[in-house]
Structures are given as structure tokens and as C-alpha cells.
Amino acid sequence: MTVAKPLPPRTSAARVPAVDVVRGFSIVLMVSYHLCFDLNLYGLTAFRFNDAPFWLNLRGVIVSLFLGIMGVSLHLASRAGRHRDRYLRRLALIATCAGLVTVASHQIFPQSYIYFGVLHFVAVASVLALPFLRLDWGNLGGGLALIGLGNTVHLPFFDHPALHWVGMMTYKPFTEDYVPLVPWFGVVLLGLWLGRRLYGRHEAPARTLPHILSPLAAMGRHSLLVYMLHQPLLLGVLYLILRVHSFSII
After folding, report:
1. What pLDDT score was predicted for residue 201?
2. Can you spell out the DSSP letters for 187-236?
3. pLDDT reported for residue 3
4. Residues in the chain with pLDDT < 70?
């Protein structure tokens, strides 16, 4: 009788505390950004998210951190050994969450709902990155090329709605979150390259961190859960605060 080989524990080589900390830090930045966005939504502030350099650059930093760490994590997962069933379950979960984001955003922003945001990108990039896992310096060159392409080439051909997910459009689509393949897949490739530099095929990554960083590491380990829950919680708490404040005035 053949005994099925068990999957390795979740604390395998694919789990590196330092990577979780950086991912957790990007989550903190994202939650802070969305808190300010929600304050705008309720009319409490007037931040200019669409044209103010500070907000545009902050969003770029947040997405770059998150997707760069995605590339590092893909390298670590491949180093630990890919397991098809676990990979497919994770991919299905991300795709389902992306669909929920689309549905929920359509209820709140029917004219600018999210149809290819960060989770949609992560689902697609998780598949497209598979052939690049064995590359090394090619990922550096390819990543820089995609970033350069996405920031310099804008063609009317890609303005068609069916091609918005690719990028290289001549205008920014009217949507609340937009993370196209070009240039952002280039950041994932840079993360793959950096992962090989930091965590080669044989080096054992350090697994101890100062306790003060434990909350960030915990957020990094559960980034998808935090991503899915933080906006409903922020919007709900702000709504309750405003309701209580209005009652107190009355």
C-alpha cells in the first residue's frame, strides 16, 4: 500500500519572519492610506488622492512593497518545494477574494468599481510568474524592462476595456484600484531576483526577530485576511462614530 506523502508544515522554508515583517509594514501603510480615503468618503477631509504627489507616491510605495515581497515569497515557496494542491487552493482563494472585492466595490462605487485591482493582479501574476521561478539575472533585466515599458509606452490599442488589465493605456481608467500587468509584474520579477540574492538555494534564513516586530510579522502572515476585513471595519467604525456624534449634537 502506498502512503501519501504529507505536506510540510506551514512553518517551512517558505515562511521567513523578516519577509512577514516587511509585508506587515506594507499592510500598515495600506490601512493608513485607506483610513484617509474613507475620511474623504465621509466628507471629513479633502485629500487629493488623484493628483497630489504625496498620495500618488505613497500608493506607489505601498504597491511596490507588497508586490516586491510577493516576488520574494514566490522564490521562497519554490525553494521549499512547490505543492500543486496547496498552490491551487491558495490561487482559488485569492481569485475568490478578488471577485468579492469587485462585487462589494460595485455596490459602493457603481461607476468606478474595482475590476482589476491588487488581488486580481496577484491572482494573474501568481500564474504568470511560474516560468520565471528558475531564472536569476533574467528577472532583474525583465523586471526593469517592464517597469520602463509601463512608464514610457502608452498606446491607444490598449485603451480597449478587454485589455485594461495589461496596462500601457493612454489614460487612467475610472476605477478605485488599478494594478495592471505592465509595469507591476516587473516589480514581482524584481522581487524574485531579490529573493535569490537574500535567500539562495541553500542558505537558511534567520528565523528570530525582536519581539517588538511580532505584531507586524503576524499581520504579514495573515495579510489576505487583513486586506479583506480592514475596509469594512474602517467604514463601519467611522459610520458609528459619526452616528454617535450626530446624536450627541442633537
Report:
1. 65
2. HHHHHHHHHHHHS-SSPPPP----GGGHHHHHHHHTHHHHHHHHHHHHHH
3. 39
4. 1-14, 81-82, 201-207, 246-250
> Long-range CB contacts (< 8 A, 24+ apart) of 38-44?
38/231, 38/234, 38/235, 38/238, 39/238, 41/235, 42/238, 42/239, 42/242
CB atoms within 10 A of CB 124: 20
Q: DSSP of the chain, one letter per residue?
A: -PPPPPPPPTTSTT--HHHHHHHHHHHHHHHHHHHHHHHHHTTS----TTT-HHHHHHHHHHHHHHHHHHHHHHHHHHHH---HHHHHHHHHHHHHHHHHHHHHHHHH-TTS--SB-HHHHHHHHHHHTGGGTT-SHHHHHHHHHHHHHHHH---GGGGSGGGTTTB--SS--S-S-B--HHHHHHHHHHHHHHHHHHS-SSPPPP----GGGHHHHHHHHTHHHHHHHHHHHHHHHHHHHHHHHHHHH-
Residues recorded for the chain: 250
